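Amino acid chain:
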Amino acid sequence: MTEELFIEKKEYGFRLVLSAKESYFIKDKNNGWFTMTIEEDRQAIDIMNDKYENLGVKDLQELLCKIMTDPSETLEMLLGEKKNIEKVTIEFF
C-alpha cells in the first residue's frame, strides 16, 4: 500500500502526518539531539529522544531534507516500520 506524507513546517520544528490519526512532531533538543512526539489524533501519547547522527544527519534542517528526499527509508529509521511513501506535501505555518 502506498501512502502520502504531509509535512507541516513550523518555525520551531515540523510535524509528519501519515493519516488523520497518526502524526509525529519533531523539534530540536540541543547538543545533537532531537525530540519526536508521537501523536494520536494530534494528542501526544509518547516522546522519544534520539541523536541526529543515528540518522546520518547533523541537525533538524538536514533531517527535514532527508525526509523530503528519501521519505520511505528515513521514516523506517525513525519509526521502525516500513512505509511506502510516494508523495510528499509540505505546508509552511
